Automatic annotation (TrEMBL), chain A:
Pfam families: FAD_binding_4
InterPro entries to which the protein is assigned, alphabetical: FAD-bd_PCMH, FAD-bd_PCMH-like_sf, FAD-bd_PCMH_sub2, FAD-linked_Oxase-like_C, Oxid_FAD_bind_N
MF-aspect GO terms: catalytic activity; FAD binding
Domain FAD-binding PCMH-type: 7-185
Protein name: FAD/FMN-containing dehydrogenase
SUPFAM superfamilies: FAD-binding/transporter-associated domain-like, FAD-linked oxidases, C-terminal domain
Superkingdom as given in the UniProt entry: Bacteria
Keywords of this entry: FAD, Flavoprotein
Lineage of the species this protein comes from: Bacteria, Bacillati, Actinomycetota, Actinomycetes, Propionibacteriales
From TrEMBL, chain B:
Gene3D superfamilies per record: 3.30.465.10, 3.30.70.2740, Vanillyl-alcohol Oxidase, Chain A, domain 4 (1.10.45.10)
Entry keyword annotation includes Flavoprotein: yes
Keywords: FAD, Flavoprotein, Oxidoreductase
Species for this entry: Nocardioides luteus
Stored InterPro entries: FAD-bd_oxidored_4_C, FAD-bd_PCMH, FAD-bd_PCMH-like_sf, FAD-bd_PCMH_sub2, FAD-linked_Oxase-like_C, FAD-linked_OxidoTrans_Type4, Oxid_FAD_bind_N, Vanillyl_alc_oxidase_C-sub2
Residues of the FAD-binding PCMH-type domain: 40-218
Superkingdom in the source lineage: Bacteria
Entry keyword annotation includes Oxidoreductase: yes
UniProt-recorded name of the protein: FAD-binding oxidoreductase
A Pfam family this chain is assigned to: FAD-oxidase_C
Length: 388, 488
């Protein structure tokens, strides 16, 4: 017995397959025995989501950590789901390339990032996992191995099943291998940072940057008790970066520039704290930024203001009533601005008292998808929206 | 009552829609018998042209109740027969759902109905400094609904991505007639990314009645180059050199000698004399960035053997460069009475090898092939030329066209990069995907449309019986054995 738990639930046993074929074998046996299976990579987000209703097998995919192919001339790479994101990026960096997806949770694997759809500041440039994933190998609940997509960036043959798997928290199939489009590592990068007076001012500066001709790779807002900062990243050829930095400095009076990221860049605000927190993700239309910053209030928020995503850390010690009130306030604000409020992570006792997802449109259709892929509800049962 | 299901549907449609929104007259039905892929023709049993999402949903609900298949059609410009009608079914035309509901600069979003023409979204956003990035060559006539169904690309998707990267939300009329919202104004809606599955599903998962798209800031500077090479090999080497230098141009298009000849004959675009290949390269973005990239691109083209590098100095010159490229398909009509437009994808680095193999295939068969393609992302559009008046020529062209797809698959590519599978390529799907892969895709179909009434017969060569336990089927499909299901 290990001491690993999935949101407080201890798995019956852990399997360590080293290939897609071994995963298939385990899933066929589990299907025959009616056992539940929870895939995991580095285990960095096993506390996310609802507690599973059953956890017979923890399927540790960390041994599937090979680079199957890196076709640098084609800017694609195929890797095992257990490959850490950081290691993938070290590998492709040798050819001057990168997977333009931030390692939001240190140590996370490709498969874990795919299952939870994590992202960071670079999403403004290159989108999220759904925009970078071009092919996937999966093992279904019945043990059947299937592929979707391919290894060319442009491909419209058949359904894009890969997109369904992104963010599905291991409830539809077990991803064993993924193919990504890569981007060139830019020759130059520069951060431009400025202090904003308040939420409204931060929103004003954000809009100014959005409508400018500077094409930032990232546009972040970091609001804390000490003040609110707008941080912009520009990347490209050195001459281009210099020109764009100058334009941004004009747009953001008093801005400072640096070739190093500002403190906390790309980290969840709760990563900086030692005490336990409820980690909340808020999404909103771009014009809703000031209201979201205001709704977070003294708790502060940090996130990709340029795309409408923010993260809020609520100290667990505040107590359930206050946490609920914060969540309700954020949910009302995000809802007013076309977005949602989701609890990513929280101490187990608190999580059980909260609605993690809030309203989920099209939930019936989602249940039907789940029923087709996993009719016996044995893959990560209960961890996802609506108890899926 | 004695009415057939179709008669019942016609009666209900007449009650729901204005008089000219229900077409039953055979001669008028025949005007809808094909889309942009004109050699497939089926006359639909009924055509309806709703004016509101409510009307469209009501029609689909009737279809579900009466188990009558339906096919959605936008502008009918698709090149894979995706909106080829069903002989016993209804063709649901979305062209009257054409309101641009919102253009919100502050959110970088527009909300449009499916019948809105692609270019009109850009026209509506341009006054506030924005545009809609996906730009299929047919953008002056194709509809957003069709773009969503096909996950349309275009010349600029190398840098900006496809329709799926630009659609944030949609209202879908599901196969049971229910209206569901997928995605949202804000990113990362909780739950499964159903929208990601719907975009590119070729109308088999339902019909979208409202689409929220991302608007992109108009670039500060655009530079368009026309570069002449003596061979496609040299042009291909230039493309590889540009990509290897870490430059992502907005577009890199290639045309070979035969395609250039056709374009010259049709639109007098003034491409370099005697070129074995031309590249159309476009750089866009912040002026400082574009200037730096431009210097590198000119140097790299020179190093790889370009004999002429022309940079558009005026919008008119830029227009003329693009006119040659965008009119290439139709232009081929000037040099050949008939032609097949193929659409396949290869890894970009396989370009020289595959082009040589296409040349061999062409020489061996005596069938001429003109090559036009999105070189940056390896999306080939070979135009296979033939004269249908010559006995056997059509079949020979078909064979060459199929051979080209086989070449794409041998090199790890795809049977379609942007035109879709539709009716045309369903039979090729098993060459690209294993039975298990197709079966898995059809699990999605079963969730959305278990009765398979939404655009049946497209994409998949063999239907899956929904509700069946996955992975336990052996032999032929029961419906197929019973002679009920069609096999393509």
């Amino acid at each position: 017995m290990s001491d690993i738990t999935v949101s407080g639930v201890t798995p019956g046993r852990t399997e360590h397959p080293a290939s897609t074929a071994e995963v298939a074998e385990i899933l066929r046996a589990a299907a025959a025995a009616g056992e539940s299976v929870i895939p995991t990579g580095a285990g960095t987000k096993l506390s996310w989501g609802n507690p599973p209703t059953s956890a017979d097998i923890l399927l540790d995919l960390s041994a599937l950590d090979q680079v199957s192919e890196h076709a640098s001339g084609d800017l694609i790479a195929t890797v095992g789901a257990g490959m850490p994101l950081a290691r993938l990026n070290e590998h492709v960096a040798t050819a001057g390339q990168r997977l333009a997806l931030d390692e939001a949770v240190p140590g996370a694997t490709v498969g874990g990032a795919l299952a939870t759809n994590t992202s960071g500041p670079l999403r403004m440039l290159a989108g999220t996992m759904r925009d970078l994933l071009i092919g996937v190998t999966m093992v279904r609940a019945d043990g059947v191995v299937a592929k979707a997509g391919g290894k060319v960036v442009k491909n419209v043959a058949g359904y894009d099943v890969g997109k369904l798997l992104v963010g599905s928290m291991g409830t539809l199939a077990v991803v064993t291998e993924a193919t990504f489009r890569l981007h060139p590592v830019p020759q130059g990068r520069r951060w431009v940072s400025v202090a904003a007076r308040d939420a409204a001012h931060a929103a004003e500066l954000t809009q100014a940057v959005l409508h400018s001709q500077t094409v930032p790779s990232a546009l972040e807002v970091d609001a804390t008790a000490d003040g609110t900062r707008v941080d912009v990243l520009v990347e490209g050829r050195p001459e281009g970066v210099a020109g764009r930095t100058a334009v941004l400095s004009g747009l953001l009076p008093g801005a400072e520039t640096s070739d190093q990221p500002p403190a906390g860049w790309g980290r969840y605000p709760w990563d900086d704290a030692t005490a336990s927190h409820v980690g909340v993700k808020v999404t909103f239309r771009l014009s809703g930024l000031a209201d979201v910053v205001a709704a977070a209030g003294g708790l502060g928020m940090r996130g990709s203001a340029g795309v409408g995503v923010a993260y809020v850390a609520v100290p667990a010690e505040r107590g359930i009533a206050e946490i609920r009130a914060v969540l309700a306030r954020l949910r009302e604000t995000a809802g007013r601005h076309g977005g949602s409020t989701v609890v990513l992570d929280a101490p187990q006792a608190i999580k059980e008292e909260l609605d993690l997802w809030g309203p989920v449109p099209a939930l019936d259709l989602m249940r039907r998808v789940k029923d087709e892929f996993d009719p016996d509800h044995r893959l990560s049962p209960g961890r996802f929206v609506g108890g899926i | 009552m004695g009415l057939t299901p179709l008669e019942t549907l016609i009666r209900r449609a007449r009650a729901l829609l204005p008089e000219d929104g229900v077409i039953t007259d055979h001669a008028r039905l025949r005007t809808y018998e094909c889309d942009g892929l004109a050699h497939y023709r089926v006359t639909p049993a009924l055509v309806v042209i709703p004016e509101t999402a409510e009307q469209l949903a009501a029609i689909v609900r009737c279809c579900a109740e009466l188990q009558i298949p339906y096919v959605a059609r936008g502008s009918g410009t698709g090149l894979s027969g995706g909106s080829l009608p069903h002989a016993e079914g209804v063709l649901v035309v979305t062209s009257r759902l054409r309101a641009i509901k919102e253009v919100r600069r502050e959110d970088q979003r527009a909300v449009v109905e499916p019948g809105v023409i692609n270019l009109d979204v850009t026209r509506a956003a341009t006054p506030v400094g924005y545009y809609y990035a996906p730009d299929p060559s047919s953008q002056q006539v194709c509809s957003i609904g069709g773009n969503v169904a096909e996950n349309s690309g275009g010349a600029h998707c190398l840098k900006y991505g496809f329709t799926t990267n630009h659609v944030l939300a949609a209202e879908l009329v599901a196969a049971d007639g229910d209206r569901v919202r997928l995605g949202g104004d804000a990113p990362d809606s909780p739950g499964y990314d159903l929208l990601g599955a719907v975009v590119g599903s070729e109308g088999t998962l339902g019909i979208v009645t409202e689409v929220t798209v991302r608007l992109v800031r108009l670039p500060e500077k655009v530079v368009t180059l026309l570069v002449g090479f003596d061979s496609t090999d040299r042009a291909g080497a230039a493309v590889s050199a540009i990509i290897a230098a870490g430059i992502v141009p907005a577009a890199i298009e290639m045309m070979d000698a035969l395609a250039i000849e056709a374009a010259e004959a049709a639109v007098h675009c003034g491409y370099p004399d005697g070129a074995g290949a031309v590249l159309v390269i476009e750089l866009d973005g912040p002026a400082a960035e574009v200037d730096a990239e431009y210097a590198d691109v000119v140097r790299l083209c020179g190093e790889t053997g370009a004999f002429e590098i022309r940079t558009a100095k005026t919008p008119e010159e830029r227009f003329l460069i693009w006119k040659g490229r965008k009119s290439a398909f139709a232009a081929v009509g000037r040099i050949s009475p008939d032609y097949i437009v193929q659409d396949g994808v290869i890894p970009r680095t396989a370009l020289p090898e595959v082009l040589r193999a296409i040349t061999e295939l062409s020489e061996r068969s005596g069938v001429r092939v003109a090559n036009v393609f999105h070189a940056g992302d390896g999306n080939l559009h070979p135009l296979v030329l033939f004269d249908d008046a010559v006995p056997g020529a059509g079949e020979a062209a078909e064979e060459v066209s199929r051979g080209i797809l086989d070449l794409c698959l041998q090199h790890g590519g795809s049977i379609t990069g942007e035109h879709g599978v539709g009716a045309d390529k369903a039979a090729h799907m098993p060459k690209m995907y294993a039975a298990e892969d197709l079966d898995t895709m059809q699990l999605v179909r079963c969730a959305f449309d278990p009765d398979r009434i939404s655009n049946p017969g497209k994409i998949f060569p063999t239907p899956r019986l929904c509700g069946e336990r996955p992975g336990r089927r052996q032999g032929a499909h029961p419906l197929q054995e019973a002679g009920v299901a069609e096999v393509f």
